[in-house]
User: Fold these one by one.
Assistant:
Number 1:
Amino acid sequence: MNRNDSVAVITGASSGIGEATARRLAVAGLHVTLIARRLERLQNLKTQIEAAGGRAKVIVADLSREVDRIRVFESVQADGGADVLINNAGFGWYGYFKEMPWKTALEMLQVNVGAAVHLTSLFLPEMQKQNHGHIINIGSISGSIPSQGTAIYGASKSFLDSFTTALYRETRGTKVNVSVVRVGPVLTEFCETALGRENSGHVPTEKIGVTAEHVAQRIWQLWLHPKRVIYIPRWLGVTPWVELSFGWLEDWIGPLLLKLNYKT
Ligand SMILES: NC(=O)c1ccc[n+]([C@@H]2O[C@H](COP(=O)([O-])OP(=O)(O)OC[C@H]3O[C@@H](n4cnc5c(N)ncnc54)[C@H](OP(=O)(O)O)[C@@H]3O)[C@@H](O)[C@H]2O)c1
């Protein structure tokens, strides 16, 4: 395989981590397939990537919809298939679960979990047939520390952790890699998008975090040197240990923090 001719399919490429990752991989010579709902954003990104000498393709899709995911897969296959699939599309919501509209919870499960699982089920067998490939799922440290205020979001990321680990163990020893990126706070539109949703409060981490470009650089390195899991930033590798050792403390402090933060 010539790495420079590799095709990377990136969901949620219209902003934040997905956009920065598409730019980074395009600079490295990969052909990037950009997927999201906002056509104008994707087209602008494609134009910029091509102006810089890269190659990009746009597929507009609402990944909460099964029919759109299948269309994405068929379109990518028609062009020769994918070498890398980055399941990045996702969104959050902050507040008491009882305040979360079911419509939002369902959409979150459809995008954060459903799209990643469905696209993986479509692309993984093709990667196994071609005997190479890498599936990278964008998780969160919320998957390791279940937190008040992000019940469905954290559970969706825990699902991705478990799903990825299982697939990693199923594919170990083959040339198909599966990884999860456990990301801490990143300065993107993530918090603003959450706040725009019905009944959501401000995500407490909205003013802190690493840049999307930093995450993109780590994803690029992950592709070069595949691993089951990476943490961004690295020191957040302590999070599973924190939950095991201090979960009892969060049982006490967590409810107070949510009471103070929600809708203030
Ligand atoms: N930012 C953080 O602090 C943070 C921390 C940990 C993990 N993460 C994870 O990182 C990933 C990327 O988030 P981000 O921070 O880059 O946020 P972002 O800037 O809001 O980007 C989210 C992306 O997901 C896409 N998306 C959302 N719903 C979609 C749908 N129904 N169909 C297709 N695309 C959809 C959006 O595109 P359209 O709106 O154009 O469809 C957008 O491109 C998410 O999985 C998030 O959970 C973020």
Note: The longest strand covers residues 133-140.
Number 2:
Amino acid sequence: MEGQLSHLKRAIDKGSNARYITIASGKGGVGKTLISINLAIIIASSNKKVLIIDGDFGLSNVHIMLGLAPDKNLSDFINGKASIDEIVFKINPNVHFISSGNGIQELVNLNSKDIVSILDRIHEYAETNYDIIIFDTPPGIHNETLIITSSSDIPIIISTPEPTAVADAYALIKVLNTSMMLKDFYVLINKCASKEEGAKVFGSIETVAKKFLDVNLNYVGYLTYNKNIIRKIVDQKPFDKLLTQELNEVLKRVPLNIELKTKESFWSKLAQRMKLG
Ligand SMILES: Nc1ncnc2c1ncn2[C@@H]1O[C@H](COP(=O)(O)OP(=O)(O)OP(=O)(O)O)[C@@H](O)[C@H]1O
Ligand SMILES: [Mg+2]
């Protein structure tokens, strides 16, 4: 196992200039996909190149929200049916998108050599072409989500004020902390009635987390419940002025240039967790 791991490290550890953000939640429907798309577009407007990877394994909904129909996905790349260029869909010149299909589950099931070879090529491509990579994950505590979230530089956990969403956000943070040794989290509260409600909901998660877990929770802010968004999503144009303003505030607290604690790249951590998990 030691030899295998050092091979994995050598092959993929070429450092990292890009930063990797994961958007995750315990409960479904809290706004992860809407937030991933809008964050990507706002970050790209300050002249950065952003790649969204839809980790909604088999249930990709980034493209549905945008009314796009990419015909190839990560799974086609893994199976040798497409090159990386062919699976990248350009939403605009600075925001690109890869739909993962069943790709991430397929990757986890490959042998170490194939995982390294595939992640090495994706690493090369991501680092050459993008500043920020955003993963939109499915809700809940799936192995693939835990691996991606705990390997990323900036894990953002989304909750709403609903008690079930709060309980599930805490449960996700707890598993990431106790099983995957993740300590630093960013928390965003969506669908709030007010700024005060956002702060109160974050406070309730923080109080329990401080008591039972060894974590640092960073509150990045709130988004208000915004009726206009529903109509815009139906029209497959999920953008809104207030949402953009609020996300700009959130972004002030998201460290896009975060200094990396180790030289280990996102892809190296991912490969190791896939084999050890
Ligand atoms: N701030 C908001 N105000 C009003 N509606 C919102 C807001 N954020 C998200 N929504 C609505 O919530 C619904 C779920 O949003 P979205 O699909 O982004 O959530 P999700 O967390 O990605 O869901 P899933 O867990 O199924 O992937 C959408 O219909 C969207 O319109
Ligand atoms: Mg979603």
Note: The domain at 2-276 is CATH 3.40.50.300 (Rossmann fold).
Number 3:
Amino acid sequence: MSQPANPRSRPARGTGSILVTGATGMLGRALCARLAASKTRFRALVRVHSNRDLLSGTGAWMAEGDLLRPSSLIAPLEDVRLVLHLAGSLRGPDYSVHVEGTRNLLVAVASSARIVAISSDTVLRTHRSAYAESKAEMEALLAADPHEAVVLRPPMILGPGSPHLASLERAARLPVVPIPPSGRKGPVWVGDVADAVLAAAELDELPDGPIGLPGELQPLDALIKAVAEANNWRIPRTVSVPRKALTGAARLLGSLQSRPLLDLERLDGLAEEVRLDPRRARELLRWDPKPLREVLRLCYSSSDQNPT
Ligand SMILES: NC(=O)c1ccc[n+]([C@@H]2O[C@H](COP(=O)([O-])OP(=O)(O)OC[C@H]3O[C@@H](n4cnc5c(N)ncnc54)[C@H](OP(=O)(O)O)[C@@H]3O)[C@@H](O)[C@H]2O)c1
């Protein structure tokens, strides 16, 4: 695997005209594995402290840059015709990579380049978290920009190393799980999302607006039980907790802690069910996501670095 000694050095010949941002992330690793399998030459945008070992074996040219440092993007974007823009921050509190990072990318990339960007289904919520607001702002930037852009809106993505899977596992380990008011969730397999990104890159015509990537909708308690079952753990009992009780607990915790564990903004988001239209992804991208049982089977049988 090649690495530039100087991050501002010109990319070597033959490193391809595709740049993947967020390559070291959960989705990025699945995407890079696919590009490697099809022997596609590409560059992976990595930060100084990114764990480059996560991309070993993909043949990616490591192009050092940070989306929040505009000057660092010039060399990685040289001659790039396609950006697969997956970089993001799930946990905050700083979501500037979605807005400032995307703005810097749009300034630095050639006007003829296409961008496939990963947003989130949370932009459709009426109670938007700071994360969802930043993704909505990113979408608005892309919509107002003259570059060709295809925006994808996945819901919760599951795969090896997924923080959502870790949360579900923590809940599934409890003997009794309190369930707050929650809409159904439609998690998707990380490899299916990577396939959608590649299909979006190949579209002949730009779609009219973002494309949702919905998975099989399940109530939260069923999801937690399915995780327990997939691990052969004892199936936990679930009890619904009314919002009123949670509000009281949140107020109490808020008065006791500077950063309370129980965040009402998140709970409001959880309560809402986001409906994504499955037909557009099916028709435009020929996308056929795996059902939950299969998603979980793959989560526990795939290797972290090469999700199938
Ligand atoms: N995971 C989900 O359930 C989910 C659901 C819906 C949408 N999404 C979106 O899907 C995308 C991929 O998610 P993921 O789960 O793969 O995320 P992830 O595992 O947290 O990876 C995030 C990636 O973004 C890179 N990154 C962050 N800040 C950057 C910056 N300033 N400059 C360059 N690179 C930067 C990280 O690089 P380092 O290695 O250097 O940290 C890492 O490669 C994100 O945009 C996320 O918002 C995720």
Note: The pocket of NAP is lined by residues 21-28, 45, 47, 50, 66-68, 86-90, 97, 101, 118, 120, 154, 156-157, 164 (CB under 6 Å).
